[in-house]
Amino acid sequence: MEGMLGTPEATRLLRTTQLRVTRPRVSVLEQLQHHPHSDVDTVAQLVRAELGKVSTQAVYDVLKALTSAGLVRRIEPAGSPARYEIRVGDNHHHVVCRACGEISDVECAVGERPCLHASNDHGYVIDEAEVIYWGVCPACQVTGEVVDEPRTDAQLRAEPAQRHTK
Ligand SMILES: [Zn+2]
Ligand SMILES: [Zn+2]
After folding, report:
1. CATH assignment of 7-75?
2. Contact call for residues 93 and 108 (beta carbons, < 8 A)
3. Please, where are the H alpha helices in 16-147?
4. What angle do CA 115, 107, 43 make, to 5 degrees?
5. What CATH number belongs to 90-158?
6. Is the backbone of residue 107 left (phi > 0), alpha (psi -120 to 50) or beta?
7. Closest ligand to 74 CA?
8. Domain extents in the chain
9. pTM surpassing 0.70?
10. pLDDT of 160 over the 60 cut
């Protein structure tokens, strides 16, 4: 299957960094290949199923090291624990289901950072716009899952007003 990571590929990726190749690191990369956008608990369960006794803290440390090394991307949709994926470096966005929290990849709208241009950059050199699309996934549309408190982008709109300007 194209794009399958497999142990040799995970090992090769680790060798491109300063990180030592360890079984937990290889396993975490493999699990994220098959289960993108997993949170630390999910990754820990998957790693334990493969390697046996590995603590959630150890998996968290592995994820942190892999993220620092640039092999893993960490995303934090509002109201959700941090999620991890190995698709890095392409500035893709995410669409999140308001009802069940399911996350899918969306290609970058423009194709490169920062994707959106700020109407006022306040003199900053802006290199990223964090874009998250919110909606209801196909499965939840079918079950008619009720979304009692839809998140709005009111927070986003309110932000510039709260910003302190000198
Ligand atoms: Zn859903
Ligand atoms: Zn993604």
Report:
1. 1.10.10
2. yes
3. 23-34, 40-51, 56-68, 138-143
4. 110
5. 3.30.1490.190
6. beta
7. 2
8. 7-75, 90-158
9. yes
10. no
Strand 83-85: give its sheet, edge to edge: 38-39, 83-85, 73-75
**What is the 136 CA–ligand 1 centroid distance (Å)?**
6
Ligand nearest, relative to CA of residue 96: 1
d(CA 94, CA 10): 24
Q: What is the pLDDT of residues 84-141, one digit of tens each?
A: 999 998 889 999 999 999 999 999 888 888 888 888 999 999 998 889 999 999 999 9
> What are φ and ψ of residue 105, in 5° steps?
-80, 145
Would 7-75 and 90-158 be classified into the same CATH topology? no
Residue 52 carries which side chain, given as an amino acid letter?
Answer: G
Closest CA to 103 of 129, 71, 79: 79
